[in-house]
């Protein structure tokens, strides 16, 4: 407990230091401070050559009643694996697994150090500003776990002056109810926003039980889901050059764990509770932009069934200091230090486990020509009992053709990555392996981008990317010679593939149409086996070779129609390619009407998911919902 108290004192001291330093910066009348402008979107500034996609707040509002898992599934061709309607949902990039994906909130990693992954079903859209996805190794930017890619979440920016409010209610199939409300205030110096939500779903749908003779239709049991939470964001402009921000994010979920078809009923339940607190201070001076961040995260999990009662509680403390210097739009340099402390209590451990980590990073962006962008990044991690290698990254973007209508660019990136074994990997009683090595990887990608512009009538963007990824010392849980499941550094994995995407916006009179499509072809297989015979040359389990998505929406005089097609190819349920889940195609439709009521806005909407009533599974023997509908109403005060 001494270590824990010490870090609490350090965190409190750093927060006090940020506030004290911020207040000291309010008087700038005697100084002329240089304006620092970092060009481009934050996720792309130091990621030249990498594939980056954005889900802005306008799009996310379509899925305001759902989770980030549902939004990513509908809009992007990344693969989400869901353990049923009430189970964990995880995302995987480019043939990797969920623990090889980093998730950052306002620039700090929020993935659980115990599990090494994030449950996307508990990440509500309500309270988010923008979501960006960076494909490929991003560890030079974001640290451990960013082997396959990274998901970057930001808090909303309340720019509208005065008071704003919004309320949304939704009811739908399978006894589903959702409600959310947002209240904000903004002026020249202060921005305050609070968003709260609640979601209740019985998930009592009917399905065909393929594990029983004759595939009888049964009603789903033990799959109810109850979740609520809130976010709070305060931004205080102390002066034209200084800003102090506080962010709060609380989520609590009570859920029944949906049983697999044919399994014994065990009344499994799980409670998840997460609290995230962050303070951030930003100051611009002739030295550039200085950023301090201090954060405290707590993640609690309580699992019960007929024979088990297990609790886990992980506390995370993070400090990060950054310095950014930008010279107009020519070059930008960003360097910093990140400190982390984890304290975990788990019924599966012999006692409390503590771990300290640190990382130093330097990110450089240079535009030698208007048509050429180059980035060079380096990150060095320091972890107790481990020595991860440095993770460099080099990328470039070259716009080699530019006319009045057409722009064609070449993109290329190579980067290193790593992942430290999780606390469960090392300390689980009877299974943990403290001798595990960190995963190390290299990623290479290149591609072409084409942009077609015809005045204000048409914008069409197309991108094609090919990549090759090699991951050494891949950690996998597998049975040893006694039949006991343990994590070992079993294999070297090669993942390679092609990613295609296109997006177009066209204006036809009073009709605006926006469409996008994406396709991925992924080969992810063992290239080498260090222990046992393995399954060399076979596709890894739950990695579809083919994944595609098509989205289109049209607006006309306040009416908006939305169509989404999502295809997932065959997935093997083991590494020997002997069992598989069939491919499936989902169709989702939505229609809404926006109406003005004075200066306020009323939006009425109807949505239907799985319109074709497709029978499918994302995990073996986990039933997924048939056709469903939802009605929603939203009232917005500017």
From TrEMBL:
Gene3D superfamilies: TonB-dependent receptor, beta-barrel domain, TonB-dependent receptor, plug domain. Transmembrane segments: none annotated. Residues 217-605 form the TonB-dependent receptor-like beta-barrel domain. Keywords: Cell outer membrane, Membrane, Receptor, Signal, TonB box, Transmembrane, Transmembrane beta strand, Transport. The keyword Hydrolase does not apply. It comes from the Bacteria. Belongs to the TonB-dependent receptor family. This is TonB-dependent receptor plug domain-containing protein.
């Amino acid at each position: 407990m001494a270590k824990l108290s010490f870090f609490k004192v350090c965190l409190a001291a750093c927060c006090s230091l940020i506030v004290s330093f911020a207040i000291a910066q309010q008087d700038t009348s005697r100084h002329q401070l240089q304006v620092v402008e970092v060009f481009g979107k934050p996720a792309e500034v130091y990621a030249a050559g990498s594939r980056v996609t954005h889900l802005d707040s306008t799009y996310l509002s379509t899925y305001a009643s759902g989770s980030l898992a549902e939004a990513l599934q509908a809009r992007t061709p990344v693969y989400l694996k869901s353990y049923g309607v009430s189970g964990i949902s995880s995302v995987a990039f480019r043939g990797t697994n969920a623990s090889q994906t980093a998730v950052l909130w306002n620039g700090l990693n929020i993935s659980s150090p115990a599990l090494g992954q994030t449950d996307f079903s508990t990440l509500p859209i309500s309270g988010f500003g923008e979501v960006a996805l960076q494909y490929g190794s991003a560890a030079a930017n974001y640290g451990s776990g960013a082997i396959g890619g990274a998901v970057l979440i930001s808090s909303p920016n309340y720019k509208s002056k005065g008071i704003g409010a919004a309320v949304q209610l939704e009811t739908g199939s399978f006894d589903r109810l959702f409600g959310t409300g947002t209240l904000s205030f903004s002026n020249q110096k202060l921005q305050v926003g609070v968003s709260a939500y609640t979601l209740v779903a019985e998930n009592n749908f009917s399905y065909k039980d393929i594990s029983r003779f004759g595939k009888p239709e049964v009603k789903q049991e033990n799959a109810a889901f109850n979740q609520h939470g809130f976010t709070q964001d305060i931004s205080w402009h102390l002066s034209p050059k200084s800003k102090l921000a506080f962010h709060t994010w609380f989520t609590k979920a009570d859920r029944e764990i949906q049983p697999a078809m044919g399994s014994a009923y065990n009344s499994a339940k799980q409670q998840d509770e997460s609290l995230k607190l962050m303070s951030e201070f930003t100051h611009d001076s002739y030295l550039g932009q200085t950023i301090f961040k201090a954060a405290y995260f707590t993640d609690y999990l309580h699992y019960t069934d007929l024979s088990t009662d297990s609790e886990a509680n992980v506390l995370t403390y993070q400090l990060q200091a950054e310095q950014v210097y930008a010279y107009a739009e020519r070059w930008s340099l960003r360097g910093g230090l990140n400190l982390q402390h984890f304290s975990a209590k788990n019924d599966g451990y012999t006692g409390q486990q503590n771990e300290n980590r640190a990382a130093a990073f330097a990110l450089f962006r240079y535009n030698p020509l208007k048509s050429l962008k180059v980035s060079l990044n380096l990150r060095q991690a320091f972890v107790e009992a481990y020595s991860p290698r440095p993770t460099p990254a080099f990328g470039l973007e070259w716009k080699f053709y530019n006319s009045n209508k057409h722009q064609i660019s070449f993109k290329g990136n190579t980067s290193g990555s790593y992942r430290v074994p999780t606390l469960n990997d090392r300390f689980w009683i009877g299974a943990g392996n403290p001798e595990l090595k960190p995963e190390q990887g290299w990623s290479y990608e290149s591609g072409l981008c084409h942009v077609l512009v015809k005045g204000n009538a048409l914008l069409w963007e197309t991108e094609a990317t090919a990549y090759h990824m090699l991951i050494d010392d891949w950690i996998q849980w597998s049975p040893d010679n006694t039949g006991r499941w343990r994590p070992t550094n079993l294999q070297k994995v090669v993942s390679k593939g092609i990613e295609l995407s296109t997006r177009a916006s066209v204006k036809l009179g009073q009709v605006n149409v926006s469409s996008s499509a994406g396709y991925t072809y992924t080969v992810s297989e063992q290239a080498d086996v260090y222990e046992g015979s393995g399954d060399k040359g076979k596709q890894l389990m739950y990695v579809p070779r083919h994944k595609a998505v098509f989205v289109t929406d049209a607006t006309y005089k306040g009416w908006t129609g939305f169509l989404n097609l999502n295809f997932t190819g065959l997935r093997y349920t083991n590494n020997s390619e002997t069992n598989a889940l069939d491919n499936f195609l989902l169709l989702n439709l939505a229609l809404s009407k926006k109406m003005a009521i004075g200066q306020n806005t009323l939006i009425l909407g109807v949505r239907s998911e799985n319109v074709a009533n497709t029978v499918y599974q994302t995990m073996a023997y986990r039933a997924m919902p048939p056709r469903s509908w939802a009605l929603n109403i939203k009232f917005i005060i500017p």
